[in-house]
Model the fold of this input.
Amino acid sequence: MKLIMLGPPGAGKGTLAAKSVNILNVPHISTGTIFRTAMSSNSPLGLKVKAIVESGRLVDDQTTIELVRERLAQEDAQKGYILDGFPRTIPQAEALAGFSAVGKVVNISISDSDILERLGGRRVCRKCGHNFHVVYDKPAREGICDHCDGEVYTRDDDKDEAIQKRLEVYRAQTAPLIQFYREKGILVDMNAMIKFEDTMENFKNALAPRRV
Ligand code: ADP
Ligand code: ZN
Done:
């Protein structure tokens, strides 16, 4: 299964992808998590992208494409993958087509008010990248990840100003991918729901073979 998760920030791409790894048995590859991990460890990549990511803008296509090309060349990605956060621009999608045959694109829709509620309350584990929410999905111990004991923090780009910027960037640069993949006949639409279990149900339906 070579799958792309498409949708605005806060749609739940990362959460759905993480929960599906065991079902689909392919790696979850999140460019956002790769960038944040690099930023936490102050690697050359992290230092290069930090200011851009924190402001809610996109990392340049060349850097991002190269990163994904290398990641998809690794052993575990040969049987498939769930790509979360890539591609985010038409040039990225065109480049991807040159080195991998995508099987399906799940396009997640969500209302603007739900986006704001989700992103404003989102907390993330610095170590393993797991997502929590201050109201809907709290870690058992405040500030500590249930899965790896890592520190749970608020992403800089989940603050108000950066959220607006990310929504703008999504509409201008990423939303055109919906049409791009619809024309290729591999896009399936689904709605994000308030309850995660309902969203997961919609996602499973979207993955069912009959849908494309
Ligand atoms: P979300 O889906 O919540 O907006 P991500 O974790 O996918 O967040 O991405 C966070 C940030 O990482 C983006 O706002 C951007 O700065 C950078 N980023 C992630 N993926 C890409 C990409 N494919 N191209 C360019 N920048 C990216
Ligand atoms: Zn963790």
In short: Residues 160-174 form the longest helix (15 residues). Residues 179 and 187 are 9 Å apart (CA to CA). Residues 125, 127-128, 130, 145, 147-148, 150 surround zinc ion (ligand 2) (CB under 6 Å). The chain has a mean pLDDT of 94.
